[in-house]
Amino acid sequence: MFEASVFRQRRLQLMQSMGSGVALIPTAHEALRNRDSHFPYRFDSYFYYLTGFQEPEAVLLLVADAQPKSILFCRDKDMEREIWDGFRHGPAGAVERFGFDEAYSIAQLDEMASKLLANQPKLYYALGQDQAWDARVTAWLNHLRAQGRSGISAPAEICDVRTLLDEMRLFKSPEELDTMRRAAKISTGAHINAMRATRPGKMEYEIEAELLHEFRRHGSQAPAYSSIVAGGANACVLHYVVNNARLRDGDLLLIDAGCELDGYASDITRTFPVNGKFSGPQKDLYELVLAAQAAAIDKVRPGSHWNQPHEAALEVLVRGFIDFGLCQGTPEAVLESGDYRRFYMHRTGHWLGLDVHDVGEYKHDGGWRQLQPGMTLTVEPGCYVRPADGVPKQFWDIGIRIEDDAVVTATGCEIITAAAPKMIGEIEAVMTC
Ligand code: GLY
Ligand code: MN
Ligand code: MN
Fold first, then answer.
1. Is residue 100 domain-shared with residue 200, that is, in the same domain?
2. Are the CB atoms for 394 and 281 separated by under 8 Å?
3. Are 304 and 328 members of one domain?
4. Of 142, 168, 194, which residue sits at a domain end?
5. For the whole model, what pTM was predicted?
6. Residues 273 and 429 sit within 8 Å (Cβ to Cβ)
7. Domain boundaries, position 139
8. Dmax over Cα atoms in the chain, in whole Å?
9. What are the pLDDT digits (tens) for 172-197?
């Protein structure tokens, strides 16, 4: 985790952008999985971005006055609960470790929030993100409104705090990039191990276990999203996560898996033959997707707009679909009609960061956003061929995606997942050793 000064600086930057008013940023709730067992806890990304604080039942309140103040509400120290569930910082410990100006028991939140919101012009809050918090905030505001005759006013404006935070999170700092590179390194190692472990007859979940083992043994806290380990036709199900089929000789295996490290996601897809050797039709489509990815990566640089990598990948894919008899007509006509969507139905990437599909505007003032140094994104073209009349049979049930993570640099981009093999020769070589 970063130094407390990193989080303090982010809080100050946010309060400067607010100018005045109060911001309220709660962390995530704990969620029950079944009966009294919980899902593994994961903090809210906005809250973590501003605090580094990982305990549940915590709220950050920022007061953007002339004397900006950051206040944490968190669980009290509690020896009994700490014996059962583990360490808690408690308010005093949180001030010391995370550099808040003040911290109080979460039990004091309702009483203090009303007071802190009194006579403030604006409340910055992610309205609509969580119903329980919306109800609580509404009660505070109504409580203040009811005191109008005593000269107390509620904030007149509610602004979405995410608008300011999304813009901050879109540009990664050197320490964030360092964490993302380390996450990418763990995930590339996991993909290489998965390639080596794959054999006809194994189950998809056995390969998933290789990935999870590699993530965890290098200190990743969790997968950044549910791993997709999809053999053969399963690769044509874009969000296939059951991972319970047997791998068959002659099929491809598509793995979309990445670890989360200290809150930051990596997101890699590789597709390779279960038996270690690409067949002719598999090679044709694989080389096409690889060429589409190279064309897209070439456009990941300052001066390009967000959609240019996607447009570049599409242009290559559409020409290939026509050459291979998957689509008919001219490239312009296939692009115009959208017929290519039968085989390529998703976009070529997304922002990457604390969330795998990270925050940040894709369009700005009505136009696609320009890429700038410090932005991080995925580049992930694919091709998915389901059996259908008129579709050449040799391509049926082939699903391919190749996905890398890119950092926009001053002159182009850095592919931080490049160590995961993707050239046909490299993959076949890795799979023989
Ligand atoms: N693994 C999620 C995605 O590629 O978008
Ligand atoms: Mn992705
Ligand atoms: Mn992915």
1. no
2. yes
3. yes
4. 168
5. 0.97
6. no
7. 4-168
8. 81
9. 999 999 999 999 999 999 999 999 99
